[in-house]
Amino acid sequence: MGLEKRGMRERQRILFVTSLSLFFSVLVWFNYSAVLPYIVEEWGLSGTEAGIVFGAFQAGYLVAIVPAGWLADRYSPRWVIAVGATGTAVPSLAFAAIADGFVGGTLLRFLSGVFVAGVYVPGMRFVSDWFPESVRGRALGLYIGTFSVGSGLSFVFATVAAEAVDWRLAIAATSVGALVVAPLILGLTRDNPRRKRTEAADDGFDLSVLRNREYLCAVSIYSWHNWELFGVRNWLLAFLVAAPAFAAVESTILPGLVVGAMIVMSGFGNAAGGWLSDRIGRRRTIATGLAASAFLSATFGFLGELGLGALIAITLVYGVVIAMDSAPTSTLVTEVVDDRHVGTALSVQSLAGFSTTVVSPVVFGLALDRAGYAAAFPTLAAGALLGLVSVGVLVLVQRS
After folding, report:
1. pLDDT by 10-residue block (mean), the chain, 400 residues
2. Residue 202: its pLDDT value, please?
């Protein structure tokens, strides 16, 4: 019993430290978005240039995510996380200190994006090493939920700091925490001694997972989940600013704070989804979350005339349900592939999933230009419905 309690305490410590590492690192992800109006004004950026600076971070992440997953399979995930977090912080701090225009800002955001790939997926790999399948859903739910909490609070922290002082302090304040990740993760955790490793040190990428039909279904689910999730996060602020209830308040801060709170609520949705999937199963939880978010996405564009309290309440509920399927889907990936290739599998899943985030905001914008928000939000519901189709295919695959 003593050994079992010590083992449980160690797993809890590892989950806490790994989640804290992700929290500090992910604050960097959206701090630029939170202070975008200030940067556009100071640097004289066009809309296209401002979008490229944001996209550079995403591009860096996509370029590095598969190599990061492979490194986490091959070597200690702790060291990958430590290097990744430090590399995320340094260019972001340089952005706050010396960036003075489009070219330098784009380069520094790209470098931060490259290194943050060494935190998120390797952290999932590390957590899955320590938690058995019976409780892995709730563990990954808490870890992945940290991504949403950190993203949302980044909006809140940066918005307040920029309003109080300036945007450079806001970027710096939300970047410096990532520098403490290396001593935390290296000093307070260790690799699971029972972890399986590949045999040959010079093996290349093992993409045999692409022949695994269950895995491909999970990748499809995750990709359509991200289609909906990031489409909402990209356009929600614009929708709220245009809503009469927010316009009547005449606050430049309130809409941003509500968006931040909605993203934070997604962290609770991740945790709830992970916990529920351990109780009633991965597929049922994923389907429940996708069905609920599809309904809200299909109808949200019609809600702009609601009163302030009702609109905020529904927005926060939206944040919960839109994230419920994320942790169960990633947990499913860790269960249907070989233990030695979990990092690679998660990174390919992330690559596919984040690729859709480039497309869905554009499709939303096209629909918005043609017919307004009532037509734009259903384009996101279509993603959730295609995710449900993927769940149906998964059921057929697992029964065959």
Report:
1. 72 94 92 83 83 83 90 91 97 95 94 94 91 88 89 82 88 95 94 64 59 91 92 84 85 80 89 91 94 96 91 95 92 86 85 84 85 92 96 90
2. 44
pTM of this structure: 0.82
Q: Which of the 8 DSSP states describes residue 1?
A: -
Instruction: Report the distance separating Cα 167 and Cα 34, nearest Å.
Output: 9
Give the side-chain half-sphere CA count within 13 A for 116: 30
Which candidate, 261, 373, 377, 243, places its Cα nearest to that of 317? 261
Task: Please list the alpha-helical segments (H only) found in the chain.
Answer: 2-26, 31-34, 36-43, 47-74, 77-98, 102-116, 120-130, 133-164, 167-173, 181-188, 213-242, 244-249, 254-280, 282-300, 308-321, 326-336, 342-371, 373-399
**Under a CB-based contact definition with an 8 Å cutoff, are residues 106 and 22 in contact?**
no
- CA gap 336, 339 in Å, rounded: 9
The answer as to CATH 3.10.450.50 being correct for domain 207-400 is no
Query: Nearest to residue 271, comparing CAs of 285, 292, 257?
Result: 285
Task: Give residue for tokens 């806490």.
Answer: 16
Of 61, 72, 76, 69, nearest in space to 26 by CA = 61
The residues, ordered by sequence, that sit 6+ positions from 246 with a Cβ below 8 Å of its Cβ are: 240, 254, 255, 308, 311
Q: CB under 8 Å to 290, separation ≥6 — which residues?
A: 221, 225, 325, 384, 385, 387, 388, 391
**For the chain, domain boundaries:** 1-190, 207-400
CATH fold match for the domains 1-190 and 207-400: yes
> Which are the contacts of 124, defined by CB distance < 8 A and separation ≥ 6?
140, 143, 144, 330, 334, 346
Assigned CATH topology for domain 1-190? Growth Hormone; Chain: A; (1.20.1250)
Q: How far apart are CA 386 and CA 372, in angstroms?
A: 23
Residue 28, both tokens: 């960097």
What DSSP assignment string belongs to 28-39? Answer: TTTHHHHTHHHH
* Residue 291 burial (CB count, 10 A): 17
- How many CA atoms, within 13 angstroms, populate the side-chain half-sphere of residue 89? 21
